[in-house]
């Protein structure tokens, strides 16, 4: 809620394909703008320090921790949240893969994991499960669904799974060390 004594500034964004014109205080983070002014609560507030990745969204196609960027810094940019990944009733291929691979448990980190995985795929830097794990390491899963998350992402990317370290046993539900 904006206090009448606090100055606000105009910001124009495209969020999930829709142009938005808003007035924000200078210190409002992109995360708070999305959740509190646009009611897009799929993006989660985790640590609020950029350490857990729960707030990951795509800004002009790049992965960004929404808690670490001010709304005003994103003037004119295109923002995609987890709510914008599906096309109408059709889930994004990563959303389908997360379901098929049981890549979420409590689901709190899932929106950030999904946005991060979409960004990772667009970056085109991962060519193995190990690289997917490394490039997704900024997204913390408190439930330890890492093997299933990597499986879902590599499945969509059509990468070989578990060939990066064949001696390492895969036990579903365990946290990789």
Description:
With 177 residues, the chain is of the alpha+beta class. Helix content is 28%, strand content 14%. The protein has 5 helices and 5 strands; from the N terminus they run ββαβββαααα. It has helices at 30-37, 93-100, 110-123, 129-135, 146-157, and strands spanning 9-15, 18-24, 56-59, 62-65, 78-80.
Please summarize what this structure is:
The protein is α+β, with helices and mostly antiparallel strands. The chain is built from five helices and five strands; from the N terminus they run E-E-H-E-E-E-H-H-H-H. It has helices spanning 30-37, 93-100, 110-123, 129-135, 146-157; strands at residues 9-15, 18-24, 56-59, 62-65, 78-80.
- The number of distinct β-strands equals 5
Net shape: elongated
Count of helical stretches: 5
- Strand percentage lies at 5-15%
User: Helical percent range?
Assistant: 25-40%
Helix/strand order, N-terminal first: EEHEEEHHHH
Low-confidence sequence ranges: none
Structural class: alpha+beta
Instruction: Determine the N-to-C terminus distance.
Output: 43 Å
Cα-based radius of gyration, to the nearest Å:
17 Å
The description of the largest β-sheet is:
5 strands, mixed
The overall pLDDT, averaged over residues, is 91
User: Strand arrangement, largest sheet?
Assistant: 2-1-5-3-4
């Amino acid at each position: 809620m904006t206090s009448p004594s606090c100055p606000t500034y105009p910001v124009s964004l495209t969020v999930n394909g829709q142009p938005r014109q808003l007035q924000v205080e200078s210190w409002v983070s992109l995360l708070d703008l999305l959740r509190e002014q646009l009611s897009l609560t799929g993006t989660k507030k985790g640590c609020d320090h950029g350490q857990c990745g729960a707030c990951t969204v795509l800004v002009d196609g790049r992965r960004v921790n929404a808690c670490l960027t001010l709304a005003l810094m994103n003037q004119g940019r295109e923002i995609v949240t987890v709510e914008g990944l599906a096309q109408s009733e059709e889930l994004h291929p990563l959303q389908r893969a997360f379901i098929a691979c049981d890549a979420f448990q409590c689901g709190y980190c899932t929106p950030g994991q999904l946005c991060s995985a979409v960004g990772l795929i667009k970056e085109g830097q991962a060519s193995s499960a190990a690289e997917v794990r490394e490039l997704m390491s900024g997204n913390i899963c408190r439930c330890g669904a890492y093997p299933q998350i990597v499986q879902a992402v590599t499945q969509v990317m059509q990468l070989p799974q578990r060939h990066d370290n064949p001696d390492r046993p895969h036990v579903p539900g365990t946290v990789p060390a």
